[in-house]
């Protein structure tokens, strides 16, 4: 039985509307202003206003009608374009971190409209300003997708080119996932939170900072061809931006609850006559943000606590072991004894042994095949409106909806004999006949049986 108890630190940020952010945490809006005949309009004024903070930024088109407004925090903006002799056009745009929202504008002649007001939402789904590849996950996806341990790293595998193991949601703690980007090691990834290094250490053994999903504004996984701004790592670049305060007070109060009485039992424990292990979890927290000085200074604070009682293990008892099926014959995996002066079989006859030892068989690489992995998580959300600015949210989340059994990979260590009761001859390296050995056998599952979690959240 393991008792887990953790509390996340309170994060407090103060932002001013005139502060300059690093490029890892901002985006930009750029485009070209033309008239209805396609002629460029130099000297047009472009005003960008933040919906969240009412921060205003201005730019003027150059001789070729181009404009660019950079260092914009992620979010929605109103873009107002005006020029002498032309009608004013109002548009809306969405800005994502590290990305450029292309917003080209056509201005009609002023006399053609009495009250010109065009509305258009530009979302940076397709990037044309560079070859970099990546995916942005916004705050809604981070907080609403089902996450048993409330850890955003379980969403990193949504990006193209990434690979991660199937999450075992019975693991104690935050269950941070390691992700491989385009085949690179997970230690070659680069994590930044609000532009600050958040890597778990050179060895990868440290703990990655994992803010509560409710406190994340958005994050992006860049998988390849990113520019020198995001250097250092040969794998993926993961940029996380936390929420900041807005011109109005907003926040949330939440509680996530799960209990083993609602869960399914591991099928192998069930076959061995073992009862469901204890698994009780409570994730609770609060977020709040708003103005300190209206339209000038803003704050945001986040707190999350965890209480966990966990006695789960995915190990299977020895009397319900599943035998793996290696590809090839037993002879292919043989470890022949090679005496001094004898040719080493795996060297194709070009090397001799200088001392007694064993040689590998003639089997090739990647001959052990792991079983197929299938998992479906499901979430249902119902919101009850209290007033225009407040609602109560009820959630039910199911992990491994159909309770599908996913086996772990077979043991690839030829000398493994722990579960079978065998032993290794210290002189020859051979498995002693009274033990079959564990090589090629499957002795555990790779994910959890069905888990049900409920949540209640007050949004204001």
Tell me about this structure.
The chain is an all-beta fold. Among the domains are: 18-122, Immunoglobulins (Immunoglobulin-like), CATH 2.60.40; 327-367, no CATH class. Helices cover 2% and strands 36% of the residues. It is built from 2 helices and 26 strands. The strands form 6 sheets. Strands 1, 2, 19, 20, 21, 24, 25 and 26 form an 8-stranded antiparallel β-sheet that branches. The protein has a 5-stranded mixed β-sheet with strand order 5-4-7-8-11, with no helix packed on it. A hairpin with a 2-residue loop joins strand 24 (378-387) and strand 25. The model is unreliable at 1-22 and 315-332 (pLDDT under 50).
Helical content band: under 10%
Amino- and carboxy-terminal Cα gap? 39 Å
Number of strands: 26
Quick one: overall form? flat
Rg, alpha carbons? 29 Å
Structural class: mainly beta
Low-confidence sequence ranges: 1-22, 315-332
CATH class membership of the domain at 18-122: Mainly Beta
Q: Architecture of the domain at 18-122, according to CATH? A: Sandwich
Question: What is the element layout, followed by pairings?
Answer:
Layout: E1 2-7, E2 11-16, E3 27-35, E4 45-50, E5 56-60, E6 66-72, E7 75-82, E8 89-95, E9 100-102, E10 105-107, E11 121-122, E12 133-138, H1 139-144, E13 162-164, E14 179-181, E15 190-193, E16 196-197, E17 216-224, E18 237-242, E19 250-259, H2 267-271, E20 279-293, E21 297-310, E22 337-338, E23 357-358, E24 378-387, E25 390-399, E26 451-459
Parallel strand pairs: 3-9, 3-10, 8-11, 15-18
Antiparallel strand pairs: 1-21, 2-21, 3-6, 4-5, 4-7, 7-8, 12-17, 13-14, 15-16, 17-18, 19-20, 19-26, 20-21, 22-23, 24-25, 25-26
């Amino acid at each position: 039985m393991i008792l887990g108890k953790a509390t996340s630190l309170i994060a407090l940020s103060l932002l001013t509307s005139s502060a300059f952010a690093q490029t890892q945490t901002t985006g930009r809006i750029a485009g070209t202003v033309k008239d209805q005949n396609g002629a460029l309009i130099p000297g047009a004024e472009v005003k960008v206003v933040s919906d969240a903070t009412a921060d205003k930024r201005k730019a003027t088109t150059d001789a070729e009608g181009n404009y660019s407004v950079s260092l914009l925090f992620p979010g929605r903006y109103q873009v107002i374009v005006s020029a002498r002799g032309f009608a004013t056009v109002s548009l809306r745009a969405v800005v994502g971190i590290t990305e450029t929202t292309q917003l080209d504008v056509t201005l009609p002649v002023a006399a053609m409209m009495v009250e010109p007001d065009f509305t258009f939402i530009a979302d940076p789904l397709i990037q044309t300003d560079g070859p970099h590849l990546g995916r942005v996950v916004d705050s809604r996806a981070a907080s609403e997708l089902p996450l048993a341990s409330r850890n955003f790293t379980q969403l990193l595998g949504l990006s193209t080119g990434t690979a991660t193991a199937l999450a075992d949601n019975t693991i104690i703690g935050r269950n941070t996932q390691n992700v491989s980007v385009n085949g690179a090691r997970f230690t070659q990834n680069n994590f930044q939170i609000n532009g600050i290094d958040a890597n778990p250490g050179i060895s990868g053994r440290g703990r990655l900072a994992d803010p509560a999903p409710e406190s994340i504004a958005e994050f992006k996984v860049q998988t390849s061809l990113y520019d020198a701004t995001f250097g250092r790592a040969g794998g993926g670049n993961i940029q996380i931006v936390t929420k900041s305060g807005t011109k109005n007070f907003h926040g949330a109060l939440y509680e996530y609850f799960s209990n083993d009485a609602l869960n399914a039992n591991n099928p192998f424990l069930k076959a061995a006559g073992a009862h469901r292990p204890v698994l009780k979890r409570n994730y609770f927290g609060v977020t709040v943000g708003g103005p300190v000085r209206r339209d000038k200074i803003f704050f945001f604070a986040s707190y999350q606590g965890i209480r966990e009682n966990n006695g789960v293990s995915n190990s299977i008892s020895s009397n319900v072991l599943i035998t793996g099926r290696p590809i090839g014959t037993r002879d292919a995996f043989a470890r022949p004894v090679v005496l001094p002066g004898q040719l080493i079989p795996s060297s194709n006859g070009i090397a001799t042994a200088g001392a007694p030892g064993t040689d590998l068989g003639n089997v090739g690489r990647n001959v052990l095949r792991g079983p197929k992995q299938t998992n479906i998580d499901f979430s249902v959300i119902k919101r009850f409106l209290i007033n225009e600015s407040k609602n109560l949210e009820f959630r039910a989340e199911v992990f491994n909806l159909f309770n599908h059994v996913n086996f772990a990979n077979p043991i690839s260590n030829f000398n493994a004999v722990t579960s079978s009761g065998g032993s290794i001859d210290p002189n020859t390296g051979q498995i002693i006949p009274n033990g079959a050995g564990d090589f090629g056998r499957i002795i555990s599952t790779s994910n959890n049986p069905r888990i049900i979690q409920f949540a209640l959240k007050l949004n204001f």
